[in-house]
Every structure is written in structure tokens, then in C-alpha cells.
Predict the structure.
Amino acid sequence: MSKSVIVVGTGNAALCAAIAALEKGATVLLLEKAGKDLAGGNTKYTAGAMRFAYDGNADLLPLVREQDDPRLPKTDFGSYTKDKFAADLLGFNDGRDLSPEQKVLVENSGDTMRWLASHDVTFEPIYSRQSFEKDGKHVFWGGLTLAAENEGVGLFEMEMAAVQRLGGTVRYDAEVTGLIEDQGRVIGVQVGDESLFADSVILASGGFEANEEMRVQYIGAHWDKAKVRGTPHNTGDGLRIALEVGATEYGFFEGCHATPMDLHMADFGGLDLPPSERKNYRKISYFLGVMLNAEGKRFVDEGANFRNYTYAQFGRAILEQPGQFAWQVFDSKVFDLLYAEYCFHDAHFVEAKTLEELVPLMTGVDAVQATQTLTEFNSAVDMTVPFDPTVLDGKGTRGLTLPKSNWAQRFDTGPYRAFPVTGGITFTYGGLKVDGAGAVLREDGTAIEGLFACGELVGGVFFAGYPGGSGLTSGAVFGRKAGIGAVC
Ligand SMILES: Cc1cc2nc3c(=O)[nH]c(=O)nc-3n(C[C@H](O)[C@H](O)[C@H](O)COP(=O)(O)OP(=O)(O)OC[C@H]3O[C@@H](n4cnc5c(N)ncnc54)[C@H](O)[C@@H]3O)c2cc1C
């Protein structure tokens, strides 16, 4: 007789778990807290970018649907080895070794992409954000090359279609409120008063980023005001109900992915907006200018690295500033290089012909100190090095206590613009400990029989930051493992 599996959630991790379990012959029911419109969790809000190890064009091309794209023959994807992926993760580990979960992620990333492709999930190169043109070629940088066709919504739809083709069933408006145990084994879930039973339960209900109380409890006091970039439904329910049956907390609970966002965006990501508008509240061109806090001071090295490697920490850094906001300041020399989100019709900014006129327009900022900071910055810019935004150009400041290491240009060509920003939380890093089959572990290392977890709920994958595009890959890798583990 086929095994029965309940999957909690319908995001990327849940759908991968469901596909894997269905492939193994299980009967699968997915329970989703949201209605049909908001099903798919944070997955639907993403750009669909997925980071994975590959050896070169030959590895990538079979994953791309649009094989006739005239740019393809002129594209150099480079290679992104497992060692490079591991090194990128290590770069965010604050001195920690690669965790067992990170090793699993790296080792299985390429294979999992091919597995998704075998279920008709197709991808497209991220030409606009991850490549530049050089000598007539499209050259990719940073190891992040592909996104699901039609971004996060496309990923959700393609994975959901695979689930339905394989015979999975989905119930919306079904909030899982507890687990049912029998002699230490999980045998089902509660949806309010209703009890539903299965051989295995896979929790794929995301992190606790949308739960203000848990953010303050685990991440820190000033996280109450964080904007939530994604779904309002990831309120830590899976974590809570797993802890109730003896699971152990695991991973970096103080950590989360957060990014600079427009200070005046809504409190949650709006799926009601078209994707092209939704993502425009993000403000990540800071590397082309400087960021000033309420005291009129800079507080990060805006040019420390490519923005892929810094934006997640800088969202946090902004929330740690007085008043939980900052202003991003740009000279007109870079207006054309700012991402489209800065010209978006609902982008908030102030503009003035001179810095003297601009500074008082930056509400909440100490104008005297801000002027001094910008003057000192201008004097410190190394004018001997040419500006080149396509590489780490080494055009930095000299002599500032807090340097800007790359892409430092003087503020000397008005008009100038300043954009008010805050930190938007994307997802949390702390979660549950799972074994190699995705089973949830107790503190003593034993598995809770019948209980599996994947996606944002898995701890130990990210610490001080994350190389962009690893969240979805992690969800797919651990989702697939949990799906197989729940059946075998
Ligand atoms: C704006 C934004 C952009 C992003 N861009 C990228 C990107 O390009 N690349 C990348 O790798 N990552 C990106 N991420 C991160 C990525 O979204 C997550 O890593 C990934 O989607 C998590 O997948 P998941 O399946 O674990 O969770 P989710 O996709 O959030 O799914 C969780 C599901 O569980 C449901 N749920 C919650 N509680 C319950 C309950 N009690 N009962 C039933 N269901 C419940 C939720 O409604 C939701 O459907 C982005 C995130 C955001 C917010």
C-alpha cells in the first residue's frame, strides 16, 4: 500500500518535497494556510534566481527553455564549481567551518536543478542583473546565472503543475495548528479542530519573519519595525509545533536575510502588485553612492563587494541605526546606472542641484554632520583609479576610518538625489535540525519518527549572510530529500 504524506505549505520547498514523495509512489496532501491567491509563500515573491554549482555552458544550456535566444551563442556563463559555491558560503560564515547543511546544499545543488528540469521546471539566464557586455559577449559574473522562467510565480506554477500531474492534492485556507503524536511518533496534524492523519508529515511552512514577537525574541529589539518583504503567513508555526513535540532549535537564530527597502513601502510584500512593481521597493544600488544615518554618518563600506554579497547584511545594518532608517545619496554621474527601481513611479526621493540644498531635505538627518561626512568623503576619494562598475575596481577612499573600497566617486556633479530606506526582512536563518533524510531531530540527535522538515525551516544553512539565490536552491535540495525520506 502506498504511504501517505502530509506536506505543510505550498512554497518551493513544500512543492519539491511533494514531487519527490509522489515520485516514490506516496499519496500526498498539501495543506496551505493562505487562500489560493497567497499560496506559494515567499517563493512567489522571489525573482526565481537559483544558485548552483556547474562546470560551464554545456551544463547550463539544457536547463534553459528559450534555446533560440540569439544571445545564447554569444554568452559566457563561466563556471561555478562546488569549491567556489562553498567558498562563497564560507564568506558569510563569520569564521565558522562549512556546516553539514551547507555541504549538502553545495553537493546536491546542480543535481537538484537537473531534477527540477526533468519535471518541466525551466529557467532563463538573468541577463539584466547578472551579466555585462564585453567584446560582443554577454559575460556572467558572480556565479548566479539562472532564474526560473517567469520568476517566483513561474517557479510556483511549474512546480505546482508537476505536483498535480503526479496526483498530489492541495487544500487552501488550511492552517496547521499542531501535530498529533502517538507514542513519540508523529501521525498527523491538527487544522483547527480537524485531525488529519498520515504516515509522515513534512513541515515546509517557512520561517518566522512575519511574526513580530518572534523577531524581537530571536533577532533583536529593533526588529519590531522591519518591513516584511514577502508573505504575511510565515509566522513560525512549523517551528513552534515541532518544538512542542521535542524538536531542538538549530542554527543562527539571530540571523536573517534583510535588504535595504524604500522606507515608505507597505508593511508586507504586496502580491496584489505586479512582480515588476513589487520588487521595485528594494533599493540596492547603494554601492554607487553612500548611505547616511540619522546622525549624518556613514555606517557600512558601501563598496565592500558586489551588491550580491552585501545587500543582505546592509538591510540589517540599516535597522540597527537610530530610528531604523538611512538615506542613500547619489551624484547625477550614476543616475543612469541605478537599477530601474530608483526610477519607479512610487520611488520616494528628494532631489537638489547642490549638496547644500539636498542635505536639509533628508528628513531626520543631522544636517551639519551629513555635510561634514560628504565633504570628508569627497576629499578621500582616490582620483588616480578609473571607475568601473563591472569589476571590483579598487577605486576607494583613502584615510577614512570607514572606507568605501570600490566604486567611490566624488559628489561633484549635481543634481543629487537621496532615497530614504529601511531594512526589509526576507527570511530567517534559525530553524530545526534535520538528518540526511530530512527527519527532524531532538536535542539528543534522535529522529522524531514521522516528522520531516525543509526550506526556510531548516537551520544551519545560513549565518551572517547568504549568497543571493541560495534560498530557493536550499529549499529544493532539502525539500527533495525530505520527500524521499518521508516515503522510504
Ligand atoms: C521578496 C523576496 C525575494 C526573494 N528572492 C529570492 C531569490 O531570487 N532567490 C532565492 O534563492 N531566494 C529568494 N528569496 C528567499 C526565498 O523566498 C526563500 O528562501 C524560499 O522561498 C523559502 O521557501 P519555503 O518553501 O521554505 O517557504 P515559502 O515559500 O515561504 O513557503 C512557506 C509556505 O508555508 C505556508 N504556511 C505557513 N504557516 C503555515 C501553517 N501553519 N499551515 C499551513 N501552511 C503554512 C505559507 O503560507 C507558505 O505558503 C526571496 C524572498 C523574498 C521575500
About this structure: The chain has two domains: 4-207+429-487, 258-424. The radius of gyration is 23 Å. The domain at 258-424 is CATH 3.90.700.10 (Flavocytochrome C3; Chain A, domain 1). The longest helix spans residues 100-118.
